[in-house]
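This section describes the prediction task in plain terms. A model, or a person checking by hand, is given the sequence of a single protein chain and must write out its three-dimensional structure as a string of tokens. No templates, partner chains or ligands are provided. The sample shown here is typical of the held-out split.
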Amino acid sequence: MDIILYNIFVPIICLIFGYLCGSFSFSIFIGKVFFHQDPRNYGSKNAGGTNAGRLWGKKFGLLVITLDMLKTILPMWICWAILTFVPFGEKPLLATTAVYYSAEASNYIIQWPVYYLAAFGCLVGHCWPIFYGFKGGKGASAYMGTTLGASWGLGFVPAGIFYFPILKKTKMVSLTMIIYSAIQLVFVWTWAILLLANVIPQGWQWFVMYGPSLNPTWHFALIVTAMVIIMDARHHANIGRIIRGEERKITWMK
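The expected answer:
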């Protein structure tokens, strides 16, 4: 019974913790403290980094994007560290990545990377923050924080190869994010399928990770897919403007 309860309540706690962290909006905080403005009343009327950059300049836009990414990365890593290293009884609740791929994983109470629910909760909180009347951003920074914070191979590599070239070509942040996230899903699911099919040799699993840390398995692929669905749905107005040829383009990238 204890095992069942742990596997019910620990995921819920991770999700709630992530949601509360994600519900703090750096865009709204910076806007009210430094500019006496609520970004949700101006521009695209959302509390995201792109709108902040258009309102207060690209430096503040970049600052908001960075902080929003960090507010997603930190809860995810905090949950990973607590569940992996803090003992609950004789052993920690969650196996390390090294143990995850061995027969010893069955000795642990939780056998899947539940810490990704904290990142998912952050994205939900970012989009529908409880502290700001459930009106927030579109989730792009939280999504980027999740992928970059979970895996250098599945995060930074696709970003370096595709994101900036697409942005330079389209000059539209929203269209770039939609295209880039679709391409990244191919990377994430390819890796997950290779792991499930045991194509990746033992010891090579760490190749796309930050050492023996967060484990980008098929659970990660499912979480990322759910994030992309939410993020694309939040960009429905942008998609309409793109189709009509009315979407604003950036001017700072030459």
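For orientation: The chain has eleven helices and two strands.
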